[in-house]
Amino acid sequence: MKNISKSLREKILTLTEEYYKETFKNSIIPGKNQIPVSGRVFDQHELYNLVDSSLDFWLTEGRYNDEFEKELSKFVNVNFTATVNSGSSANLLAFSALTSPFLGKRAIKKGDEVICAATSFPTTLNPVIQNGCVPVLLDVSIPEYNIPFRSIKKNITAKTKAIFLAHTLGNPYEVKELAEFCKKEEIWLIEDCCDALGALYDGKKVGSFGDLSTLSFYPAHQITCGEGGAVLTNSAILNKAVRSFRDWGRDCWCAPGNENTCGIRFNWKLGDLPRGYDHKYIYSHIGYNMKMTDMQASIGLAQLGKIKRFVKKRNENHTLLTEKFKAFEKYFILPKATLNSNPSWFGFVLTVKKSAPFTRGELIKYLEEYKVASRFLFAGEISKQPAYKNIKFKKPVSLKNSKLVMNNTFWIGCYPAINKYIIQYIVKVFNDFLRQYEN
């Protein structure tokens, strides 16, 4: 029976590869299909892994997830990786871990101040608010779209307990200098690397500098699991806190399907519980269930095998776009990599100059008409968003650049499905639009 089952499995998996070749055509025809800003890029290996995992019918974390966590740790060069169900959850778990009683006097408490970027994605900011802390919003630089280290250093106060920043659009901030400063001052640093997997600063992977870092595997990102994310750290105690918050807040660390790995499951004495209360049902945090499934991890593992190629292609596309758009510098501020960095570009970002004879809205409308998709730089100046109307922010500096971003900035795609012919079409569309403003 076992041999029959194995033979059937092999047949199914062979057919899966054939199915991919017959079914999926990952092609964009410029002018006919919309050119997305991002999207999934995959081949038969992802489908093979997904079907292989589904045939196990192990519906939570399993063998693929174990391997995915191991390979992510190796790629980013950190000690611990905990996969989760989304990048947003990763951000919530990373920040929540810093409130853990495991950390003693260094645990973040309500009312503590946390430095954030005024221009950001909501889920980098939301965990700060959800944990009762005060966000301190600082302005970003243009054309890097990150907060300069000198500005962060200048705005540290006795109330600053953490810094929580994303590497904007895959462009690293001055993370080495910031990490060294934070360690000296005993300030927590979370690197949101959701848009930046594979980026380097000073020759070292982003995500390996801070106390904690996060990743997202939504289809827009460098690799995808469909949904999914991860929290990475070099600290055993922070990893334990992350996993506890992720797994209902429980104190037990046994993997799904396992029990009594501590050897004293019925001999613990924690809190006000009686000695011998089942360790699988002792809770040290007010947590969630944010685990990844093995099927998602199986896709991520196949994707991770392509990460170097994906990053290389993104950067090649970004370089080509930069070269082509130099002809349009009269109208746009072009993106610039942070000094001493090698980005993993998430998109090609442009800011319409104040002197331009057209608005961002007029240009975006034209691009949409000719099937070139674009996105604004996330939430713009985020405190202006309706969700944050009654939130208490600290704004110790002028946010003039963030306001410019809110009104004039957008980005287009450079992800691996885009090629030089698509870029030629994009440049032509821009050129056709701009021609009407030439003297």
UniProtKB/TrEMBL annotation:
<dbReference type="InterPro" id="IPR015424">
    <property type="entry name" value="PyrdxlP-dep_Trfase"/>
</dbReference>
<comment type="similarity">
    <text>Belongs to the DegT/DnrJ/EryC1 family.</text>
</comment>
<dbReference type="Pfam" id="PF01041">
    <property type="entry name" value="DegT_DnrJ_EryC1"/>
</dbReference>
<dbReference type="InterPro" id="IPR015421">
    <property type="entry name" value="PyrdxlP-dep_Trfase_major"/>
</dbReference>
<dbReference type="GO" id="GO:0000271">
    <property type="term" value="P:polysaccharide biosynthetic process"/>
</dbReference>
<dbReference type="GO" id="GO:0008483">
    <property type="term" value="F:transaminase activity"/>
</dbReference>
<dbReference type="InterPro" id="IPR015422">
    <property type="entry name" value="PyrdxlP-dep_Trfase_small"/>
</dbReference>
<keyword id="KW-0663">Pyridoxal phosphate</keyword>
<protein>
    <submittedName>
        <fullName>Lipopolysaccharide biosynthesis protein RfbH</fullName>
    </submittedName>
</protein>
<dbReference type="InterPro" id="IPR000653">
    <property type="entry name" value="DegT/StrS_aminotransferase"/>
</dbReference>
<dbReference type="GO" id="GO:0030170">
    <property type="term" value="F:pyridoxal phosphate binding"/>
</dbReference>
